[in-house]
Amino acid sequence: MTCSIIVGGQWGDEGKGKIISYICMKDKPSVIARGGVGPNAGHTVKVKGKSYGIRMVPTGFPHLDAKLAIGAGVLVDPEVLLKEIEMLKEFKVGERLVVDYRAGIIEEKHKEMDRKDEHLAKEIGTTGSGCGPANVDRVLRILKQAKDIKELEDYLGDVSELINDTLDRGEDVLIEGTQGTFLSLYYGTYPYVTSKDTTASTFAADVGIGPTRVDDVIVVFKSFPTRVGSGPFPTEMPLEEAERLGIVEYGTVTGRRRRVGYFDFEMAKKACRLNGATQIALTGLDKYDKECYGVKEFGKLTRRAKEFIEKIEEVTKVPVTIISTGPEIEQTIDLRKEI
């Protein structure tokens, strides 16, 4: 039995969707649960050459034998969720999904407030998905819960009971975190942050398990970190340099162009500490060194790539165990069996 949490180690967009898809394919967990804020985070999942932009359903949905869960700590936009269930009906998402009856509900008024608030929209760079205003109402104890929404009644359940019972049976659980560590309301680049904490401890609480039930925390880093919207970015490079390197990306939710920077080793160390990382997954190694594209064996990586990985391990004191060398699931090096 293992319970693993996947966490973004930068400002989101680290490639967590690819890592989650790979782990689901290899480890075949019985439950894949989503923690995090809500539909303000997007993941891109590629299945047989087709891309799916997902904001609510756990990104491990291609693993057909797993229950899919959305924890009580997550904000749910019923409109977004129901559209995704319909979009993913070939994966039988609707038959496998459990939405915790205590999850908070985003209403249209929250989205309108989010988009109209000049401070949030222009200065902070909110996604406009209504999460901030909904979390305000949650704190004020006036927010609707999933159990209050008739359209969701077929999916309601107790996610905490589901996960704890699964672990008691000795089966595996994977918890997906959203956003990135430095978008945390507490530990991020305040005020340019999201509306709640985004570290492993909170993701565990989001789905209703205690810290002693967690076996692994896998922090995901991208070789060239990116950031959407405003806020500090100490290692940011000029857009011209990013274009020269072939790193032009756009946010899954906002469609805004991502700012690009060089890898920040000290920031990585801090992310590992904040999350209690036991392992690191590194994505975009093929962007760092194009000769590494599609490589599936560590021994076949270039010296430059190996030295980069060794420095990450040296600074963070955490092993790099999963290395992505391309967008496809099979373009992955898995060193977990070696630790």
Strand arrangement across the biggest beta sheet:
9-7-5-2-10-1-11-14-15-16
Low-confidence stretches: none
Radius of gyration: 19 Å
CATH architecture grouping: 3-Layer(aba) Sandwich
What is the tally of helical segments? Answer: 12
**N- to C-terminal distance:** 17 Å
The CATH topology is: Adenylosuccinate Synthetase, Chain A, domain 1
Shape: globular
Overall average pLDDT: 93
Reading the helices and strands in chain order gives EHEEEEEHHEEHHHEHEHEEHEHEHHEE
Number of strands: 16
Structural class: alpha/beta
Let me know the CATH homologous superfamily: Adenylosuccinate Synthetase, subunit A, domain 1
Beta-strand level of the residues, as a percent range?
Answer: 15-25%
CATH class: Alpha Beta
Helix content: 25-40%
The largest sheet is: 10 strands, mixed
Domains (count): 1
Protein name: Adenylosuccinate synthetase
Function: Plays an important role in the de novo pathway of purine nucleotide biosynthesis. Catalyzes the first committed step in the biosynthesis of AMP from IMP.
Pathway: Purine metabolism; AMP biosynthesis via de novo pathway; AMP from IMP: step 1/2
EC number: 6.3.4.4
